[in-house]
Design goal:
The protein has about 750 residues and is an alpha+beta fold. It is built from 27 helices and 18 strands. Helix 7 crosses helix 17 (about 375-385) and helix 22 crosses helix 23.
């Protein structure tokens, strides 16, 4: 499809842009914007090509835009489609509205093609009993196209057997399709056009001329009459072995000492005897057809190689006897005569023409050539071609109303990605919504080959899940790739099930089959270090528990063995157990370390509290920043680099821009489950697991440790006087006066 050409210079168009996804995109708000797309630098287009399949776009409209039929829509094809459709309208702004239905008054009748479309549209509406409607829709045009296409004469120059009323002509059309192939009629049925008819009758004439050659010189070309073909075939079957035989005989005549070698050596025969012999074995068939004796003719009845005896017998009956008469031996001169007599036949066969109609037989070929079928078929094709203008008009109307409805949809998913970024209608590459793991993934793209797609799509930097979708009731299947851009990946794994809803609202059972792992969100990055630490602690506890369990099992097994083998003699009195001093010391060190930890925390808390509550909060935030900060920074960098381009490119698109999926945009592509506004929630769970008061136990242990530290006077400098241990229980050495700074009333008098 070519853009309309004009010599008049056009004024440069003024463009408006909007920014979304981190890059500038052109606005398509008026018909002038669309009609001047050829002036827009293609470096500013979001895409330069897209496939005609695998997208949520009318496939018939896509096929009409794809003028070269290669399965891809390119920028120039979109420009040409818009320019053509706009020129058929009085006001190109109608293209921006994207409505289904064109008012007849909106069609531009100032150009010849516009007048033709207007006239055809009126005819279609009259045929559909909608003459007063004044508007023609896609359904109207499609119904007319289908109705017209299903007639036997539909203007495409192709006739089907049903186009002919005469059964004889119908049979010739079928024979022509079988011989030279068929072309598809507008109705979807196979038929023939003028080129195929010419090709068929040319083949008939060539085959007839070739057969006439043999009939004109039958004695020379067919020396065995109708049996010549069988004679030639039998000769070709043994020609190599007979040539070999007479060649060896000539060599033996030249040098008699070569005869043993020409008949193969004794060692070669011994090698055969070690195997299971078969008359068709390669080793046997490779030997001479008969024993080599200088000057001896070839016997046709005895002394033959068993592997070739049957072929020689057929040669004798089918070739030698019809050409030379009955005989039991074949001399070298006879062999030359046989080949010479069959040479004209073989030359005639080499020059065979019209082989595609040979299966009809020469009688049927000549019957068709002498009949009037060709003239009848040519007349039917001419009758069909008379409707070409009408057919072209119906096709143009359907093309026009489809472009009027669909071009703006394609443009806003090709020149820009407005439908993707504005949150309104889904983009044409969005196949539906996946619900899985308390999330809904809105960016799901149809995929044909997940393994091949993942090679390119993995460069997008997004978390991708390839999902097989199945409707068991109907057997419908499809595979989509879903982008997860919120939440975390703890519960995402191959084999997890969800539900997928396509753009029509149909639901599918969905199962994850492949995952391309990448960071999902900042929330995941923030908690990731803590989760890793918890997992490490759990792994260490599990490891130590496993080791303790193994050690206990070994001790139990040893004890059981000891009991089983112990003497019945009364056991000696058990020795008193000794206190393990090392264990006690270890416990002391442990409690001391814990106490030291709390002392350090108390020291830090005192210093921070002295500086104010904000300092305390700042310290907590600083610690959390030290822990989670690196993970957040790395994840943020990766999330900013997420790019939709490789995902679409892997599906056949040619994305021309860096269509990033940044953090704000990613939160819209994946939604997390939230309670509706105004909802209430009962926090009492009747099925909550019964838990031991471990927090209380822990608090008591901590309080005990703090008490020990307080009793040991290690917290005095951090506490007010009223809480100090020395304040209540001063320590005094014997014979030393009390500290005059301390009030005596708080001292505890010594016992008498």
């Amino acid at each position: 499809m070519q853009s309309p050409q004009t010599n008049a210079p056009r004024k440069p168009h003024t463009w408006q842009f909007f920014r979304a996804g981190g890059f500038d995109q052109v606005k398509l708000q008026t018909g002038a914007d669309l009609m001047n797309l050829d002036q827009l630098d293609q470096k500013l287009w979001v895409a330069l090509a897209c496939p005609t399949t695998g997208i949520e776009f009318d496939p018939k409209t896509a096929a009409l835009i794809d003028s070269d039929g290669d399965g891809r829509i390119r920028a120039q094809e979109l420009i040409a489609a818009i320019r053509w459709a706009g020129s058929m309208l009085r006001d190109p702004d109608d293209l921006v509205k994207g409505r289904d239905g064109v008012a007849l008054t909106a069609i531009n009748d100032q150009v010849p093609e516009g007048r033709q479309i207007l006239g055809s549209a009126r005819v279609i509406l009259r045929q559909l009993s909608k003459a007063e409607a004044g508007v023609i829709t896609v359904d109207d045009a499609a119904a007319a196209s289908k109705s017209f296409a299903n007639t036997v004469f539909n203007g495409d120059g192709v006739i089907i057997p049903e186009s002919a009323e005469d059964t004889t002509v119908q049979q010739v059309i079928r024979e022509a399709m079988a011989a030279v192939g068929s072309v598809m009629d507008r109705s979807g049925k196979p038929g023939v056009d003028a080129a195929k008819v010419e090709e068929f009758f040319t083949e008939l004439a060539r085959f007839d001329a070739w057969v006439n050659t043999s009939e004109a010189d039958a004695a020379k070309i067919l020396p065995a009459g109708p049996a010549t073909a069988a004679a030639a075939a039998a000769m070709q079957a043994v020609k190599a072995k007979i040539d070999d035989y007479f060649g060896r005989c000539r060599l033996a005549t030249f040098e008699a000492r070569l005869s043993p070698l020409l008949n193969r050596t004794e060692e070669e025969y011994k090698g055969l005897l070690t195997k299971d012999l078969s008359l068709s074995a390669q080793e046997v068939s490779g030997f001479p057809v008969s024993r080599i004796v200088p000057g001896q003719p070839l016997s046709l009845v005895s002394g033959l190689n068993p592997a070739h005896a049957q072929a020689i017998a057929t040669f004798r009956s089918a070739t030698v006897e019809p050409l030379l008469g009955a005989r039991e031996v074949l001399t070298e001169e006879d062999w030359s005569v046989v080949q010479a007599r069959l040479a004209p036949y073989e030359a005639w066969q080499t020059a065979k023409a019209g082989m595609r109609v040979e299966s009809l037989g020469i009688a049927r070929v000549r019957e068709i050539l002498r009949g009037d079928a060709r003239a009848a078929i040519t007349g039917l094709i001419a009758r069909d071609k008379e409707l070409e203008m009408e057919a072209s008009g119906v096709a143009s109307v359907e093309k026009f109303v489809r472009f009027h409805r669909d071009l703006i949809v394609l443009a806003t998913n090709f020149v820009n990605f407005r439908d993707l970024y504005d949150g309104g209608s889904p983009a044409i590459f969005q196949a539906g919504t996946l619900y899985l793991d308390q999330r809904s993934c809105n960016l799901c793209i149809t995929v044909v080959d997940p393994a091949k797609h993942a090679v390119m799509a993995s460069l997008a930097g997004a978390y991708l899940a390839y999902v097989d979708c199945l409707r068991k009731a109907t057997g419908q299947k499809l595979t989509v790739v879903a982008i997860f851009s919120q939440g975390d990946d703890e519960n995402l794994m191959v084999g997890r099930n969800g539900v997928f809803y396509d753009r029509k609202g149909l639901d599918y059972d969905a199962t994850i089959t492949k995952i391309v792992a990448n960071p999902i969100s900042l929330r995941q990055a923030f908690w990731q270090p803590y989760k890793r630490f918890v997992r490490w602690v759990e792994e260490q506890i599990a490891k130590r528990a496993a080791e303790a369990d193994a050690a206990a099992s070994q001790k139990l097994a040893a004890a059981a063995t000891t009991v089983a083998t112990k003497s019945v003699t009364p056991a000696a009195a058990a020795a008193p157990q000794k206190v393990d001093v090392g264990t006690v010391a270890a416990l002391g060190v442990a409690f001391g370390a814990i106490g030291g930890f709390f002392t350090a925390v108390a020291t830090l808390g005192k210093d921070l509290w002295a500086q104010g509550a904000f300092a305390m909060v700042g310290a907590i935030v600083g610690v959390m920043a030290l822990i989670s900060g690196p993970s957040l920074v790395m994840t943020y960098i990766k999330l900013r680099k997420r790019n939709l381009g490789p995902i679409l490119d892997a599906n056949g698109w040619a994305v021309n821009a860096k269509a990033r999926i940044n953090v704000p945009f990613g939160t819209r592509l994946t939604a997390i489950a939230e309670l509706p506004p105004g909802s209430s929630r009962d926090l009492v769970d009747p099925f909550e697991e019964t838990r031991r008061p471990w927090k209380l136990y822990g608090a008591l242990v901590v309080a005990g440790l703090i008490g020990l530290q307080w009793r040991a006077d290690k917290l005095e400098e951090y506490l007010p006087d009223v809480l100090k241990h020395r304040y209540h229980f001063p320590k005094k050495d014997a014979g030393t006066k009390a500290d005059p700074a301390k009030p005596e009333t708080n001292s505890v008098p010594k016992a008498a």
